[in-house]
Amino acid sequence: MGRLSRLIAGCAGATVAVFGALHTSIAELTAADLSRTPAVALIPAGIALVLQVMPVAAGNTRLRIGASAVFALAAAGVGAATLVSHPAAAVATVLTGLALACLDLRMPTRAGVTYRVADPLLLGAAIIALVALVPRLFEPAFPPGRGPDSVMPVYLAAPLLALTIGTILARPETGPLHTMDQSGPRVAVRRLAPALIATPVVAALVSAFAARSGASRPVAAVSTGVILAALALLAVLAYLVRSLSDADRRQRHLVAELKDRQDFAETLLQSMNEAVMVLDANYQVIDVNRRWRELTGHEGLPAESPPLPPPGTGGDWLLPRADGTDVPVLATMAAIPDAAGAPRGYVATYVDIAERKQAEVALTAHAAELEQGNADLAAALAFKNDLTSMLTHDVAQPISSIASLAELLCADWVDLPDDIRLELATKIDKNTRRLIKMMNDLQLLFRLDTGTVTARRVPVPLLETVEAVRASATGAAEVTIDIDDDLVALADRGHLTLVVENLLRNALTHGAPPVRIRGERQPGETVRLVVQDSGNGIPQDVLPNLFGRFIRGAGLGLFIVRHLVEANGGAVHYEHASPQGACLLVTLETAPN
Questions:
Q1: What is the edge-to-edge ordering of all strands in the sheet holding 582-589?
Q2: Which ranges of 271-395 would DSSP assign to H, the alpha helix?
Q3: Separation between Cα atoms, residue 538 and residue 546, nearest integer Å
Q4: In this structure, what are the phi and psi dihedrals at residue 577, rounded to the nearest 5 degrees?
Q5: Angle at the Cα of 189 (from 183 to 191), degrees rounded to 5?
Q6: d(CA 291, CA 269)
Q7: Which of 2, 192, 418, 580 has the fewest CB neighbours in a 10 Å radius?
């Protein structure tokens, strides 16, 4: 059908171009005579129609359409030049030329339907040509020498009508002859088009026969033909009305069925417990359900689509609310494919998991508390074991010594000389003092563990504190001091005294004399106190826990030192002395002047 229509259109275009050339002389082609020669416009119009249906390669389609538009506009221009002498022919030629120029141009309407711009132009040109031709069909019904008047000559009206029909046939797939519904009213009109065209012809023949036979006057003959034509037109119109009524009934049924399906889908969407959002292929929001509005706090559709998971995936997601907060959801994103498999839209579903997240957070916090509790229990158990070990070793030794010496004194008091008695009493006193020192350290340890130790920091002269500690220490003769008189630390005086006592006792007990204590001023408003012995240093395996609670044989001295120094805003660390010995360094803040 398409190839035959284009072939007929091409033949019509060639015939019109040849017809226009035959009715135009060489002299009439000058610019001065164009206004009196409307047949000239038929030449470019026919060529334009031929170009519209001419098969070309895929790359030359634009060139063909452009050349056709140029010839069509030329025909419209020539037709417009003859507007004064031949107004009807000029208007029909202009309409046909413009229709050929914009044959493939389509314009959208408000209802979303597109129509071809050339269709109303071709309809206007065809009506003008038919108005010019129909009176000529009734010419035999008039007396000899008198004929009906016409708006343009037959030699112009006929090719213009042929040109119009050829233009319609040039695009049968998009023109008024095209339809997708094989039973609609457009098909009925198309099938009855030959009858509509033949009706005035039949009326004219009847009128001419009546006039030639002398059966009646010419007016009666014309009347008879018009009546017959009117009856035929009424029958055609009745058929068209019935066809349109049937089509309207089918359309209403389809619309009602479509509305029912749409209402069912909308009801189903709104009744879902999950939040649902429907998007088009460009991720623009089309519709949301009631649950989605409740979950996000939006009254209507959002201006922009929220962050979405990739299509075909899902998982935990954060859905933004209208108030700026986020709600945790379980999100899924599914594509809606078309017939070709390409996505025509998307459906995103959200399940509120806020309560589940709260439960997870609570469980996580509870697990952390249990883990911290287990860690505290493990630390308490380790503390108990260490304390038990220390009590059975470090505390039991002086108690055992005191008990043995006291038993000896009691048993042999009469037989022992005075010097032996004094020596034994001195040893008992020494062990007692040692035991008291351990008890005081344990009491301080418990206070440090409970966090009840607070530092009352005041300016404390380092030299004065160190000399006071050396004076009461055993082996003071082996201790040298190198500290300036103006070196003052900001610390708790009692804490600093205990720090120096423990460091000096550790150096004398576990190191070797001589012991050197020096003070240094450091950059950044700090002072450093250094206690260095001349022993073998501290073994490498002991260094990781050097400042721990319990070091076998070392007591609680260094643990207390670390905590007291940190309570005063300072720090303590160990360095190996050169060439030998242990070096413990305490850094404290300098007291302001």
A1: 479-482, 515-522, 526-532, 582-589, 571-576
A2: 290-296, 354-390
A3: 9
A4: -75, 155
A5: 80
A6: 9
A7: 418
User: How big is the chain by its Cα radius of gyration, in Å?
Assistant: 58
pLDDT at 387: 67
Residue 119's contacts (CB-CB under 8 Å, 6 or more residues apart) are 175, 176
pLDDT score of 219: 45
Instruction: Provide the pLDDT confidence category of residue 187 given band limits of 50, 70 and 90.
Output: low
Residue given tokens 């059975």 in the structure block: 392
> What pairing do the DSSP bridges indicate for beta strands 458-461 and 526-532?
unpaired
Where b means 16+ CB within 10 Å and e means fewer, 16-42 reads bbebbeebbeeeeeeeeebbebbbbbb
Q: What is the DSSP letter of 144?
A: T
Candidates 170, 167, 186; CA nearest to 129 is 167
pLDDT-based confidence at 174, cuts 50/70/90?
Answer: low
- Predicted confidence (pLDDT) at residue 21 exceeds the cutoff of 50: yes
Q: Note whether 317 and 329 are within 8 A (CB).
A: yes
User: Amino acid identity, residue 169?
Assistant: L
Cα gap 103→99, rounded to integer Å: 6
Q: Quick: pLDDT tens for 514-527.
A: 999 999 998 888 99
Lowest mean pLDDT among 16-30, 189-203, 428-442, 467-481: 189-203
The Cα-based distances of 413 to 405, 408, 481 in angstroms read 11, 8, 44
**531: Cβ–Cβ under 8 A, 6 or more apart, which residues?**
500, 503, 504, 506, 507, 515, 516, 517, 583, 584, 586
Q: What is the DSSP letter of 153?
A: -
Confidence band, pLDDT 50/70/90 cuts, at residue 316: confident
- Evaluate whether 514 touches 480 at the Cβ level (below 8 Å): yes
Q: What is the per-residue DSSP string for 480-526?
A: EEE--TT-EEEE-HHHHHHHHHHHHHHHHHHS-S-EEEEEEEETTTE
Which of 502, 483, 575, 567 is CA-nearest to residue 537? 575
Alpha carbon 547 to its chain's center: 55
pTM of the model: 0.39
Q: Are 559 and 547 in contact (CB under 8 A)?
A: yes
DSSP result, 31-74: GGGGGG-GGGGHHHHHHHHHHHH----GGGHHHHHHHHHHHHHH
Within 214-298, where are the H helices? 218-270, 290-296
Across the range 143-162, mean pLDDT stands at: 73
Q: How confident is the model at residue 10 (pLDDT cuts 50, 70, 90)?
A: confident
Residue 489, strand partner residues: 460, 590
Entry field: residues in the chain: 593
- Once rounded to an integer, what is the mean pLDDT over residues 21-35? 59
Summary mean pLDDT of the chain? 79
Between residues 552 and 67, the one the model is more confident about = 67
Q: Which residues contact 468 (CB under 8 A, 6 or more apart)?
A: 497
Render pLDDT for 550-564 as a digit per residue (tens, 0 to 9): 555 555 678 788 888
d(CA 67, CA 270): 57
| CA 12 to centroid of chain Cα atoms | 58
Structural element, H or E, at residue 334: strand 326-337
